[in-house]
Every structure is written in structure tokens, then in C-alpha cells.
Amino acid sequence: MQNEVLVQVATDALEELKGQDITTIDVRGKTSVTDFMVIASGSSSRHVKSLAQNVLEKTKEQGVRPIGSEGLDGGEWALLDLGDVVVHVMQVATRQFYDLERLWQGAEQSRAQHEPGSGVE
After folding, report:
1. What is the mean pLDDT of residues 94-109?
2. Which of 29, 49, 64, 95 has CB 3.0 to 4.6 Å from 90, enough for a Cys bridge?
3. C-alpha to C-alpha distance for 31 and 111, rounded to whole angstroms
4. What CA–CA distance (Å, rounded) separates 90 from 94?
5. What strands lie across the sheet with 85-91, from one edge to the other?
6. pTM (predicted TM-score)
7. Can you state the subunit structure given in the record (predicted)?
8. How far, in Å, CA of 5 to CA of 47, rounded?
9. Which domains, and CATH codes, for the chain?
10. Run of H or E residues at 41
11. Beta carbons within 8 Å of 7's beta carbon, 6+ residues apart
12. Residue 107: which pLDDT band, with cuts at 50, 70 and 90?
């Protein structure tokens, strides 16, 4: 599966369950670990877990098996390693604390055009 398609599948899965402030960062040329990072916020530990599980389900439906995952039990921060795409789902305070967007400053960044209540499901 092409990286951009995998990013879209992950983003759609996050939007489906009302993930907040979904951001995609292109880190090609910045690290050899992955090509893209998708970062989203959840409103509670239950929401973070649900968002991460939905990404796993939707990517598996596309034949993508995760290399690994962390934090699915706690719900403060979940990391899904899909190979060329890494998905981080965090509670808002945790996301602000780690500030991954600033850490990868200079990498190309784009925000999904999804606003709550816009009718985009």
C-alpha cells in the first residue's frame, strides 16, 4: 500500500470517531524510522483507545499489519507503528507536553480539514 494511501486510511479512521486536531507530518529526509507521522488528540483515555483501535481495524482491513503498538491499555498516549506511517493518539494535555509538532519543526506539516460539526464523518 502506498504511504499516502495508508496516511489517508489512518486519518479517515481517526475522523470517523471524532479524533481532534489531526495533523500529518512528512518526515522523509528527517529520519529513517518512518516517512509520515499522523498525530491526533482524544478527549479521554477511552476516546484515545477507541481511536487507536479504529485505526488498527481499518488498516488491517486494507491488509496492513502493524509492526508494533504501545499504550493501548493506558489511554494517555497510543503509538501505532505501521512501518512507513506512525500514528500517535494522545490526550490533549499529553500532546501539549510532548509537542511532537515542534519537535519535528521544519518538516512539512498539514492539518486535516475536518471541523467538528461540519458534517464530515
Report:
1. 77
2. 95
3. 21
4. 6
5. 68-70, 77-81, 85-91, 36-42, 20-26, 108-111
6. 0.85
7. Interacts with ribosomal protein uL14 (rplN).
8. 24
9. 3-111 (3.30.460.10)
10. strand 36-42
11. 24, 36, 38, 85
12. low
Phi and psi of 29, rounded to 5°? 85, -10
Tens-place pLDDT, residues 13-53:
999 999 999 999 999 988 889 999 999 999 999 999 999 99
Residue with cell 499489519: 65
Q: Is 49 helix (H, G, I), strand (E, B) or coil?
A: helix
Residue among 96, 107, 103, 90 at smallest CA distance from 26: 107
Phi-psi category of residue 15: left, alpha or beta, with phi > 0 → left and psi -120 to 50 → alpha: alpha
Residue 4, classed as helix, strand or coil, is helix
Per the listing, cell 486535516 goes with 112
Cα–Cα dist 102/87, whole Å: 16
